[in-house]
């Protein structure tokens, strides 16, 4: 039985991936600090779905295929204990301080988690004999790039947020460790992930909650935005197929980068209209200028991903928005 470490297991993607890997027959150790960047009740709910009571972590069944460990990615002792007490075949690092706009308010959190924490992951893989490190990057690394769709071969030297800069740094750090210590590593540039159990700081969640509660929504760049929205099931399917595809040494390092996006950008106003249709209620829209650190459009070229795993993201915006709102109504009793 393969043993996978999934960091950020109480988070949106980490939770869904952990469930999938358990179905695939993996033993999974989930790691998370369960911070209060957003409502921890949602994180506790995800943990419960994975069979873990957050109030009784010391009472987990040692024979369960899923074990949850609470700790800090940036704490060397926590990470040394995690790697020293386990023999991981694969590490999927999804833990990070997320959010573009929050990086303007609390920059230190991004360096501690996304830089210091990722270094601890790399050191754990270096000494732990890990077969494959898969880690989350972000579409935000494309920054002010104008040419569409975004390709992994594009230069990404112009980040427009600290969050994006930390994710680009992760790619450079992973490549260096791959080169120096022959660690097979794959970086994933996620494009606007959404779906059931999604993050409350993301547009779909924010818009849905506001419309349900009869509050106005803020529409940035006066609605002139496009996003390559990517449904959570397509993200998880892609990661699951990539895990066995550990890269071999190429150009001096066994390191790959892939976009994971739907490859079909959606206009923000069309996205809002789909939310309104599913809620049966029109939004009160406040048109606003673009926010610092934001970009007007994203679009993923997924040719390399398809060539590697013979899979292209499939779930369209209409189906995905409906699935989220159905979950939201059920979870919050709307």
Automatic annotation (TrEMBL):
Residues 4-261 form the NAD-dependent epimerase/dehydratase domain. The keyword NAD applies. Pfam families: Epimerase. Keywords: NAD. This is Capsular biosynthesis protein CpsI.
């Amino acid at each position: 039985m393969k043993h996978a470490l999934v960091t950020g297991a109480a988070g949106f993607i980490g939770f869904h991936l952990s469930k999938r890997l358990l179905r695939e027959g993996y033993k999974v150790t989930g790691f998370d600090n369960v911070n209060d960047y957003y409502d921890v009740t949602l994180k506790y709910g995800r943990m419960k779905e994975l069979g873990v009571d957050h109030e009784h972590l010391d009472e987990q069944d040692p024979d369960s295929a899923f074990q949850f460990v609470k700790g800090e990615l940036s704490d060397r002792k926590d990470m040394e204990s995690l790697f020293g007490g386990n023999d991981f075949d694969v590490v999927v690092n999804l833990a990070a301080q997320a959010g573009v706009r929050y990086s303007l308010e609390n920059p230190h959190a991004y360096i501690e988690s996304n830089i210091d924490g990722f270094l601890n992951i790399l050191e754990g893989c270096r000494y732990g004999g890990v077969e494959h490190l898969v880690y989350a990057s972000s579409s935000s690394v494309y920054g002010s790039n104008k040419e569409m769709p975004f390709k992994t071969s594009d230069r990404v030297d112009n980040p427009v947020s600290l969050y994006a800069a930390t994710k680009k740094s992760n790619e450079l750090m992973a490549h260096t460790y791959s080169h120096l210590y022959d660690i097979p590593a794959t970086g994933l540039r996620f494009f606007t992930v959404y779906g059931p159990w999604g993050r409350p700081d993301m547009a779909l969640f924010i818009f849905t909650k506001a419309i349900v509660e009869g509050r106005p929504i803020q529409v940035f760049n006066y609605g002139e935005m496009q996003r390559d929205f990517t449904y959570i099931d397509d993200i998880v399917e892609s990661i699951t197929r990539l895990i066995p595809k550990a890269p071999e040494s190429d150009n001096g390092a066994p390191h790959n980068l892939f976009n994971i996006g739907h490859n079909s950008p959606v206009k923000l106003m069309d996205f809002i209209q789909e939310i309104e249709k599913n809620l049966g209620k029109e939004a009160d829209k406040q048109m606003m200028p673009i926010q610092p650190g934001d970009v007007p459009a994203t679009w993923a070229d997924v040719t390399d991903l398809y060539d590697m795993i013979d899979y292209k993201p499939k779930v369209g915006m209409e189906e995905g928005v409906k699935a989220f709102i159905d979950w939201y109504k059920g979870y919050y009793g709307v």
